[in-house]
């Protein structure tokens, strides 16, 4: 009966010493990526440096592409495309596409964030993406981002990551005075307008007659001294508060990895690594590191931007073939995370169709909410193709869905790619506590996704 029934494989149960070494070594590189790339801009800069070191060249529209070219396109510093032009006829073979995203839920500073209340300088935020607001209070936060000045220069800001840096903070009530707050529904215990950052507490004692002896003024002077910016410059800034935690192993056996930003950098990392590491030249490969997925894939750097089809059009034009034919024969893995089965909360999952930690890459035929609303819902033939491909290449994988049918749901970039007549399916790493400031994944699942992506593009 073993050949007639399906059973998940736990990677750690069957891994030999060599595979265990590969899994743990791969996770070390991922930790560095996580710690140095807490925003999409930082991720793009990190990948651009790695691409250059691997022989990739920056692409400009109008450049004539040819087989063997390895290029990257950095879209506004927040969206990266890696393209390796293969020897196959792309009108018949299409493009092997892996699309992930590098934005994560966070707190963005408002355009005029600074104010003072009762001797404390505070910063107003607007949360980005679907997060649980109460989880962001009473934890150390770091400030990351850029300030664009009117003279055309850009100032990089990163405070809270070095051991000598201060961190930032959002207050919460002490349990002794939280009786009324405890009666509120969990989602409303802390309101969005209460997610205010503590920036300072010392008044500006060097103030002159034309200056104010306020804490806010002191903070502005500190920022001006270090970065040369004024309060008005916040209006053309992108500044975000992210957890100040470092990526760390979890558990006595170190099988798991905890960090901010696993969604979706845990899929982005093996995607771009597979592209740079894979040496085969048959297929044309495109790896996409998209922005804005957490807020609907909007804008010039999101997956709904025309830059995606513009680059396919450039590839088609370079070989004098139909762009429609290229899209029709292309295949895409929407590399995004999924919710792992959590034994602390079994009531939200249907166990037979859940994905489990350390059981490999999680392939999701559909996502969406409740009645598959907003889902790509991949076709059976494409899934059969991937089953055969992964099994032949020894990839450990599993299948599942995002919780019980009526429990909730979520979406990915898959539907935005599939609308261009490209076969697309979601596949990614199972995550515990998704969208929290501290998410947890299995190192084995991270590595199996890397193997899956390499098998797909080789």
From TrEMBL:
Read off the SUPFAM superfamilies from this record. Answer: Aminopeptidase/glucanase lid domain (SSF101821), Zn-dependent exopeptidases (SSF53187)
User: Single GO molecular-function term?
Assistant: zinc ion binding
List GO terms (cellular component aspect). Answer: cytoplasm
Report the EC number(s), separated by commas if there are several: 3.4.11.-
Q: Which domain of life is it from?
A: Bacteria
List the protein's name. Answer: M18 family aminopeptidase
Keywords annotated in UniProt: Aminopeptidase, Hydrolase, Metal-binding, Metalloprotease, Protease, Zinc
Q: Which organism is it from?
A: Anaerosacchariphilus hominis
Q: Which Pfam families match?
A: Peptidase_M18
Give a yes or no for keyword Protease in this entry: yes
Biological process GO terms, please? proteolysis
Instruction: Report the top EC class in one word.
Output: hydrolase
Similarity section: Belongs to the peptidase M18 family.
Cofactor(s), names only, from the UniProt record: Zn(2+)
């Amino acid at each position: 009966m073993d050949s007639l029934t399906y059973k998940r494989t736990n990677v750690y149960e069957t891994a030999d010493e060599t595979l265990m070494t590969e899994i743990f070594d791969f996770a070390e590189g991922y930790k560095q990526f996580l710690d140095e790339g807490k925003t999409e801009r930082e991720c793009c800069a990190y990948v651009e440096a790695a691409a250059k070191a691997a022989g990739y060249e920056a692409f400009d529209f109008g450049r004539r592409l040819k087989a063997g070219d390895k290029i990257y396109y950095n879209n506004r510093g927040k969206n990266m495309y890696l393209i390796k032009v293969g020897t196959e006829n792309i009108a018949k073979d299409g493009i092997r596409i892996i699309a992930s995203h590098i934005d994560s839920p966070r707190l963005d500073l408002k355009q005029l964030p600074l104010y003072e209340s009762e001797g404390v300088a505070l910063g107003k935020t607007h949360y980005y993406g679907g997060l649980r607001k109460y989880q962001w209070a009473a934890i150390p936060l770091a400030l990351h981002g850029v300030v664009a000045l009117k003279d055309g220069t850009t100032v990089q800001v990163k405070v809270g990551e070095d051991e000598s840096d201060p961190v930032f903070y959002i207050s919460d009530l002490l349990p002794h005075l939280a009786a009324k707050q405890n009666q509120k529904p969990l989602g409303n215990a802390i309101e969005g307008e209460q997610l205010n950052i503590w920036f300072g507490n010392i008044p500006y004692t060097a103030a002159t007659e034309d200056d104010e002896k306020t804490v806010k003024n002191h903070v502005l002077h500190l920022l001006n001294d270090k970065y040369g910016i004024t309060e008005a410059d916040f209006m053309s800034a992108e500044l975000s508060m992210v957890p100040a935690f470092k990526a760390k192993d979890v558990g006595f056996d170190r099988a798991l990895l905890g960090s901010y930003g696993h969604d979706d950098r845990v899929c982005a990392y093996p995607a771009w690594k597979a592209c740079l590491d894979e040496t085969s030249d048959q297929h044309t490969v495109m790896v996409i590191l998209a922005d804005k997925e957490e807020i609907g894939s909007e804008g010039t750097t999101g997956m709904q931007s025309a830059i995606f089809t513009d680059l396919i059009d450039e590839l088609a034009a370079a070989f004098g073939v139909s762009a429609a034919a290229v899209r029709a024969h292309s295949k895409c893995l929407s590399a995004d995370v999924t919710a792992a089965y959590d034994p602390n909360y079994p009531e939200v999952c249907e166990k037979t169709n859940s994905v489990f930690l350390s059981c490999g890459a999680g392939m999701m035929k559909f996502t969406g909410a409740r009645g598959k609303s907003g889902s790509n819902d991949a076709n059976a033939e494409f899934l059969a193709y991937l089953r055969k491909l992964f099994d032949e290449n020894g990839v450990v994988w599993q299948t599942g869905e995002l919780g019980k049918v009526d429990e909730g749901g979520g979406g990915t970039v898959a539907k935005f790619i599939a609308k261009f007549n490209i076969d697309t399916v979601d596949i990614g790493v199972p995550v515990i506590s998704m969208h929290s400031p501290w998410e947890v994944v299995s190192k084995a699942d991270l590595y199996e996704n890397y193997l899956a992506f390499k098998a797909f593009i080789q």
